[in-house]
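Renewal narrative, Specific Aim 1. Our central claim is that a sequence can be written position by position from structural information alone. The example that follows is taken directly from our test logs and has not been curated for this report. It begins with the structure tokens describing the chain, in the order in which they were read.
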């Protein structure tokens, strides 16, 4: 009985989230079922599918259509950085997806500077470090182009090591 009440309360709560969770129970029963006679890989079953659309001003646009960076810009940004002083780590989420370029808005800097960010997996991209208000432990916002170059999912909260060039 408690499960039914909890499930009903959860469904009602999530249905009030502006359509972001239109069916909160979609796929729950299928996670443990074999597909085409083969059992699901545990990592694939546990990882949610990445959205292919980013909401901008009430209209959904693909991440690829919003990212206007050229191949030359991507290659330059992902080239090995010259090194620099590590400023600390931050948890970053997607910033304004319509703002082009490779940047990180972070409280770890007090003035704009060139730098780089490194994922826990070792991927590195060079970015412009842009200051925002807040304590150094506050989160940061990263550009769509930088997230894609680092192979970070658009809905992920990524732990990044931030360095100044």
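The sequence written for that structure reads:
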């Amino acid at each position: 009985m408690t499960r039914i009440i909890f499930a009903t309360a959860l469904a009602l709560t999530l249905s009030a989230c502006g359509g972001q969770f239109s069916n909160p129970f979609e796929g729950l029963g299928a996670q443990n079922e074999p597909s085409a006679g083969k059992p699901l890989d545990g990592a694939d079953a546990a990882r949610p599918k990445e959205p292919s659309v980013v909401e901008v001003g009430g209209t959904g646009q693909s991440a690829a259509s919003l990212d206007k960076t050229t191949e030359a810009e991507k290659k330059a940004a992902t080239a090995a950085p010259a090194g620099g002083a590590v400023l600390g780590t931050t948890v970053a989420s997607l910033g304004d997806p319509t703002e082009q370029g490779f940047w990180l808005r972070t409280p770890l800097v007090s003035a704009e500077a060139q730098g780089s960010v490194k994922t826990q997996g070792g991927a590195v991209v060079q970015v412009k470090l842009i200051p925002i208000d807040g304590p150094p432990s506050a989160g940061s916002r990263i550009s769509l182009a930088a997230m894609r170059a680092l192979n970070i999912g658009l809905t992920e909260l990524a732990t990044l090591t931030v360095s100044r060039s």
